[in-house]
Write a structure and sequence with these properties.
Layout (H helix, E strand, L loop, with lengths): L7 E3 L6 E3 L3 H11 L3 H21 L4 H18 L9 H20 L12 H5 L8
Antiparallel strand pairs: 1-2
Helix pairs in contact: 1-2, 2-3, 2-4, 3-4
């Protein structure tokens, strides 16, 4: 049997993978929901590198990815009691982390700078190339 990551186990039919929460992770989540600090620390240790890597892969600097990871875990700490038992914890954490990365992008952008995607067509048409002026 091949090695798997937490939250992903091989499926018997068709070779596809099905998301299944390992019992150890479920137990940590339940203990963290009950307020056990050591269990929350274990969850951080289990997933922190993956969240930092996500930020770096999305284009953040390592320092900004660390900040986004910290923000994500602060939100998890604040809202873990709302996490529905029986769901996949990493999916929930991943969504929170994605939003933390986007928030970090917004915070790290210099003031007065907007992305081309945020502009409407009229604004984009008025862009000037300073080399052609």
């Amino acid at each position: 049997m091949e090695a798997t990551r937490p939250g992903v186990l091989p499926e018997a039919v068709g070779g596809e993978r099905a998301a299944v929460e390992p019992p150890e992770v479920s137990a940590l989540v339940e203990r963290a929901k009950a307020g056990e600090a050591a269990a929350f620390d274990d969850l951080i240790r289990l997933y922190e590198r993956r969240i930092i890597s996500l930020g770096v892969q999305m284009g953040l600097s390592r320092e900004d990815a660390l900040d986004a990871s910290q923000d994500a875990f602060l939100k998890v700490f604040r809202y873990i009691r709302r996490f529905r038992s029986g769901e996949i914890f990493f999916k929930w954490l991943y969504r929170i982390a994605i939003h933390a990365v986007y928030d970090q992008f917004r915070r790290s952008r210099p003031p007065g700078v907007i992305s081309v995607e945020e502009m409407d067509r009229g604004q984009a048409g008025r862009l000037r190339d300073p080399l052609r002026s």
